[in-house]
């Protein structure tokens, strides 16, 4: 008899432990509102992760969560178990390298990791549409359940379009400080004039083309414009300085966490002057912040 399998009263085979992972996203390549009046974003998956470990306990009918402030993860766990008629007891532990309240999808990554851990423990696959329906009941969510770059209606937790594979980029970034509550941020109302909505349509079209043609400079032009447009919603105090640094090192562009506190500069990992640009960017950004952070995009299958 296998030692990693338990038998439930309903003859459901369950592992003693299931593990799930999800990556975060460095803010968004683009975020705004389209002419259909729907808020949207475009993801940028990075090498920061949430890990969930779920251990079923057939002798219990409740979930123990660690750390105990991860209440949204516990709520999702309970919904999945209940709706799929699975035993309701167990322990759930979340580990993460994604900072909280910074716009890097820490909460969304936690939730996706939880779903994957339960799927692993009970050896079943949760339909991704159903997962998104669960997430929509909890909070606006990023499209981190998709490993490619996607455009996403985050307030509805619905996929708009799978755009393409993630280009090999490095983000030299810093945190401007503070925390932003995603739920509260998305409750705010901002009036977008029709010309701005039309510009977002054009930017999204340009971004899709740039990603599919590996036009890295084109990607950076869109991310920079998105950051500038978002200054009226959630301003970044160092945006102008970061644009100047990007221009000085001949980077691709500036990218921001639109509903967060991070701002960075994009460079291609295939650039012949990669290490020179990386060093210059770190040195110049260190004049703005004591904590320069280097992050990298992840390609499909790495998360």
UniProtKB/TrEMBL annotation:
Record-linked PANTHER family: 4-DIPHOSPHOCYTIDYL-2-C-METHYL-D-ERYTHRITOL KINASE, CHLOROPLASTIC, L-THREONINE KINASE
Entry-linked InterPro entries: GHMP_kinase_N_dom, PduX, Ribosomal_Su5_D2-typ_SF, Ribsml_uS5_D2-typ_fold_subgr
MF (Gene Ontology): ATP binding; kinase activity
GHMP kinase N-terminal domain location: 84-140
Domain of life: Bacteria
Keywords, ordered alphabetically: ATP-binding, Kinase, Nucleotide-binding, Transferase
Record protein name field: Kinase
């Amino acid at each position: 008899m296998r030692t990693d399998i338990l038998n439930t009263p309903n003859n459901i085979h369950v592992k003693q432990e299931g593990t799930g992972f999800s990556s975060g996203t460095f803010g968004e390549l683009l975020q705004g509102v389209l002419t259909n009046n729907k808020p949207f974003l475009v993801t940028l998956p990075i090498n920061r992760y949430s890990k969930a470990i779920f251990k079923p306990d057939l002798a219990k009918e409740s979930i123990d969560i660690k750390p105990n402030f991860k209440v949204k993860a516990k709520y999702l766990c309970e919904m999945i178990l209940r709706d799929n008629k699975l035993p309701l007891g167990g322990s759930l532990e979340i580990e993460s390298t994604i900072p909280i309240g910074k716009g890097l999808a820490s909460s969304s990554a936690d939730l996706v990791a939880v779903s994957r851990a339960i799927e692993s423990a009970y050896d079943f696959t949760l339909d991704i549409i159903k997962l998104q329906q669960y997430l929509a009941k909890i909070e606006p969510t990023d499209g981190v359940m998709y490993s490619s770059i996607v455009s996403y209606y985050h307030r509805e937790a619905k996929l708009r379009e799978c755009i393409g594979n993630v280009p090999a980029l490095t983000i030299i970034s810093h945190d401007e400080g503070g925390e932003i509550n995603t739920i509260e941020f998305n409750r705010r109302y901002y009036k977008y004039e029709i010309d701005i909505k039309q510009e977002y349509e054009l930017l999204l079209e340009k971004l899709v083309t740039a990603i599919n043609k590996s036009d890295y400079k084109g990607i950076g032009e869109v991310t920079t414009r998105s950051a500038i447009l978002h200054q009226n919603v959630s301003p970044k105090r160092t945006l102008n300085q970061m644009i100047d640094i990007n221009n000085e090192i001949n980077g691709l562009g500036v990218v921001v966490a639109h509903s967060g506190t991070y701002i960075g500069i994009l460079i291609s990992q295939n650039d012949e002057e990669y290490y020179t640009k990386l060093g210059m960017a770190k040195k110049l950004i260190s004049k703005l912040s004591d904590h320069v952070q280097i992050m990298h995009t992840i390609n499909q299958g790495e998360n």
